[in-house]
Amino acid sequence: MATAQKKLITPHISIMFCGGTGSVTGANFLLEVAISNSNDTDKTFKVLIDCGLEQGSEAAEKFNRQPFPYTPADIDVLLVTHAHADHIGRIPKLVKDGFQGVIYSTPATRDLTEVMLADAVHLLTEEASHLHQPPLYEEGDVQAAFKLWHTIPYYTPTDIGGCISMLAKDSGHILGAAMYELHIGTNVCPTLGAFAPKAGTATSIATKKYGETVVVFTGDLGNSPALFLRDTDSVAGANYIVMESVYGDRNHQSKESRRAELTAVIADTIARKRTLIIPTFSLERTQDILFEINELEHAGKIPSIPVYMDSPLAERVTDIYRQYSTDYNDQAKKLIASGDKDIFAVPKLERIQNNRESERVDSLPNPKIIMAGSGMSVGGRIIRHEQHFLPNRDTTLLLVGYQAVGTLGRALQDGVKEVTIGGEHVPVRAEIKAILGYSSHKDSDHLVEFVSTAGPSLKKVFVAMGEPKSELFLAQRLHDYLGVNAVVPKLGDTIELS
Ligand SMILES: [Zn+2]
Q1: Are 489 and 468 a contacting pair, CB within 8 Å?
Q2: Ligand 1 center to residue 186 CA distance, Å?
């Protein structure tokens, strides 16, 4: 039997910024590792990190329909950081356009992606038929993507081919969210066969030799300490970081003050017998708010109040959150161990099954809370509740998430006195409140602190996944505070790592 011949290798590493640069959404990065040595023919190993939808404008719709700036069939591996649409939304298109490599994510991200893409394909098909266009992709493309999918738990070093050992660390952003630490081009590479993509071969990074380059792709970074998710891991030893910067130029309100505000709004709803409507994102924000209400009621900070969950998608997502309690932080695990078996089980929580029940809820007596999607009031069941309740003075509408310009949610946050819903003019007499502290992203100070964990090995930071102003501001701060070489790549740039 031939023993694996060990060869010295000289990797050339580059990153192409194909999406999520100068923009929060559309994350798509191509890492290329070219290795040549005396015996092997040159081979370039291609790893894509995320394949998300660009969102929020007509230009975005056009961007999503464009061909990828690389040949999908040439990509060996796709790493998926987490299940938000702006990181997974174009995966079925990638498969439709020829990708046949291996897809990796954590188990929770895979399960969440299944639910989120099933919902997305439904919405995309509806949207496309209104516009008399073919949909971006179809159900069959989604199914084809899952045939290529492999799950790797956190903290399990894995040989993904191309002399790359991959480690999924916790980014603390949403359930299952990983940042990928790639140990590239260890100076001893077994054989050219190592270039073949591997479907989950566990390796030990400890056995790798010196001389490797460590590149970290952060995906989105959590607002740690989170309510029940683990803190973001450190990136000690990283040489290069490709990072998000959604809040690169701003800091959040404190966690104590956001909880105090939520307590006050619910207490007021109960005291004055009002309806409280909360438009929520199905993934993460819904679970955050349920956790908070459950905690506040358990601690006797507020009396028990009926909560109607009018979002089948949020219910499916919450069920997946329940299955992965192993991914919670110690505090949440202690709560469960102490008898609070379901941290999202608000005592008077009722799941709304269909549209008829949804209408019935509107006429139930106050006080009550209605939670429904979508989070920015663009589509979803929240719209009908808003149409019904916005004219009422005994209603409070509470915004707990970012509201993009041009959405109904943003108009309400900006204080408009009349809105148009389904062609009908609706006067706004309800009280509109916003708590902006429930972000699942790190703020500017904590992004700087995160980069500082890399230590002296750090050579360069690529600041991406933010509005241009945020990216530039954060790059400047990293330079000023940490003396780090931080750059803001442009869409389409390919940058060589030296
Ligand atoms: Zn995200």
Answers
A1: no
A2: 31
Task: Please identify which residue in the block is written with the tokens 């290069």.
Answer: 240
Helix (H) or strand (E) run with residue 370 in it: strand 368-372
Q: What is the pLDDT of residue 204?
A: 47
Write the pLDDT tens digit of every residue in 277-312. Answer: 999 999 999 999 999 999 999 999 999 999 999 999
Answer for the pair 276, 399: CB distance below 8 angstroms, yes or no: no
**Model confidence band, residue 379 (pLDDT cutoffs 50, 70, 90):** confident
| Domains of the chain, each with CATH number or no CATH | 7-250+440-497 (3.60.15.10), 255-434 (3.40.50.10890)
In order of 50, 52, 310, 373, the CA distances from 315 in angstroms are 25, 23, 9, 11
Element at 35 (helix H, strand E): strand 28-36
Residue 99 token pair: 């990708």
Give distance in angstroms: CA of 88 to centre of ligand 1: 10
What are 317-323's contacts with CB under 8 Å, separation 24+?
317/112, 317/115, 317/116, 317/282, 317/283, 317/286, 317/287, 318/286, 318/287, 318/290, 318/344, 320/108, 320/111, 320/112, 320/115, 320/175, 321/175, 321/287, 323/108, 323/111
Amino acid at 447: L
Q: Confirm if 86 and 20 have CB atoms less than 8 A apart.
A: yes
Give distance in angstroms: CA of 433 to centre of ligand 1: 24
How far is the centre of ligand 1, averaged over its atoms, from the C-alpha of 438 (Å)? 13
User: Who surrounds ion ligand 1 at CB < 5 A?
Assistant: 84, 220
Q: How far is CA 200 from CA 48, 84, 156, 162, 365, in A?
A: 16, 23, 10, 13, 54
**Encoding tokens for residue 17?**
């910024």
User: Distance (Å, rounded) from C-alpha 276 to C-alpha 368?
Assistant: 6
Tokens 């995906």: give the residue.
Answer: 219
Q: DSSP states of 446-496 as a string? A: HHHHHHHTTGGG--EEEE-SS-HHHHHHHHHHHHHHH---EE-PPTT-EEE
